[in-house]
């Protein structure tokens, strides 16, 4: 059993030089989670800890109006972590690849599109979770366009589905902790299409000690294929998507494989819709003048 921390830590955020899409005035809030951390495990491919969340998990108010598969008990929108495979209520895990050159990631669908009112989303906030009791570290979150936005990922490698790098968010000084931490990054302005890839990496003295919060099922806001991204940094880079409905975590049972993440922001209407809105405004103005 691990002890809990209290309070929140507000950190700075910077953009990686030469990378697109991240304003320098963004903010980062780190909040300890509540729950029980399981024993460490390593099956040769992945390693980490099981996690059984407690109510009021410390994440703060719901933010994921574009995409959210963080469990409701942790302040998210996903009501079930891994569907019929769950053996422990509210179970999840902090997991990373054993290979230290690999990055953790996921596919995020439905963040924009006809049902949302436009083809482009502007991401203003990101929330995710991690655990690292080794040392402070620097997190790097990269968001890529997905081409095509709704295709499956069973053909590996899947480098062809990675479009433009939309943003690379570098968050230095992430604290070490013996419990899970929820991170909320605000003040962003990242333009994305209907779907995107998200990748989580780290560097610095705490590398490779970060385990990313998993166990989310995208039945809250947006959708995701059931599986996880294994990305080697290269060069050349290689991305593999492992389609699986769960991971087996010793002492915790079956845990959903998708990384728990929330995206908040707004959808830009299509140009035709903008034209109609402008026309409607002109007609309203003309009616007022004619009275």
Word description of this protein:
The chain has one helix and 20 strands. With 291 residues, the chain is mainly beta. Strands 1, 3, 4, 5, 6, 7, 9, 12, 14, 19 and 20 form an eleven-stranded antiparallel beta sheet that branches. The chain has a seven-stranded antiparallel beta sheet with strand order 2-11-10-13-8-15-16, with no helix packed on it. The longest helix has 20 residues, at 271-290. It starts with 8 loop residues before the first strand and ends with a helix.
Number of DSSP-assigned strands: 20
* Structural class label: mainly beta
* Secondary structure: helix percent: under 10%
**End-to-end distance:** 73 Å
What overall form do the CA principal axes indicate?
Answer: globular
> How large, in whole angstroms, is the Cα Rg?
20 Å
- Give the topology string: H per helix, E per strand: EEEEEEEEEEEEEEEEEEEEH
